């Protein structure tokens, strides 16, 4: 028997009214969800505590009287700006069609999320942008990365989590995306030019994965991160793949000049635009005319973002006063940093994971 997704959606729009049929459908739908979910779905169900996210989002929505507004005008095609106007919340807090972010979901464990509605209310529903004044900082007394630097246990967990988390998940290193930007000429290699600097690269796991995926691409790699992270890197394993671990604060002058690629995965989504700009601003003067900044991040689609993307967005907001970005937001950030956005290759449709390539203007 084949049941199409369209048939299930039709059923969702007109569910039975009979209580027994509803209960049976509910239980069957749960079984179906478990049967078809992918690894990221499982992660969101298990770790992101969706109930708490939904609660924080729904509570804030309720505080803003948005439910009443929608109920009073059920036929109106509401736009984010309209909702911003009637609720008094900054529209940037309410994007993400087809619904709106606050109407759906909100992480960093229940403790932080439970404080989100009050936190947003206190700010007058302004988009949080300062990590030192993030919800995480309010709950924990310091920003998420300050906490990392002061708490070796937490740093060790983060180090391992980052290295393991996406090992079996889709990656751009599957051969479908050109590696032209990483290719060093013979002269480059003779001159000892660095092929890739993995900025904020944690354990250097992406450099290891890169060597396995592209053994033909020669050249030195450098992984930069906070000293607390770099100190945990196995130096022998690193040197075996021509990888140099380097403690470096990415808000300061980039010491590796003219690398072929400056690579950042899951780094810029930890920071609001002003800080993200400062990180890119350190890279621009270090670039040679043929260098590229290769960013591996989510690109939120203009409409129809699934709940995982919205959860991630609210997670970044509550844990770091940061965000996931749309193409338009990526473009603006990159152009402000003196580069142009040359390519966006989406390599996983579900998570909208993409390789974004920026080159000098
Ligand atoms: C979300 S993790 C991403 C790690 C890795 N790129 C990956 O994709 O798995 C962000 C990384 O940025 C690092 N980081 C935070 N602040 C930093 C700073 N000021 N300078 C350098 N690295 C920093 C963190 O220690 C962490 O390893």
From TrEMBL:
Where does the O-methyltransferase C-terminal domain start and stop, copy by copy? 134-339
Quote the SUPFAM superfamilies the UniProt record gives. Answer: S-adenosyl-L-methionine-dependent methyltransferases (SSF53335)
- One family name in Pfam for this protein: Methyltransf_2
Keyword terms = Methyltransferase, S-adenosyl-L-methionine, Transferase
PANTHER family for this protein: HYPOTHETICAL O-METHYLTRANSFERASE (EUROFUNG)-RELATED, PUTATIVE (AFU_ORTHOLOGUE AFUA_4G14580)-RELATED
Recorded protein name is: O-methyltransferase C-terminal domain-containing protein
- This chain's source organism reads Zasmidium cellare (Wine cellar mold)
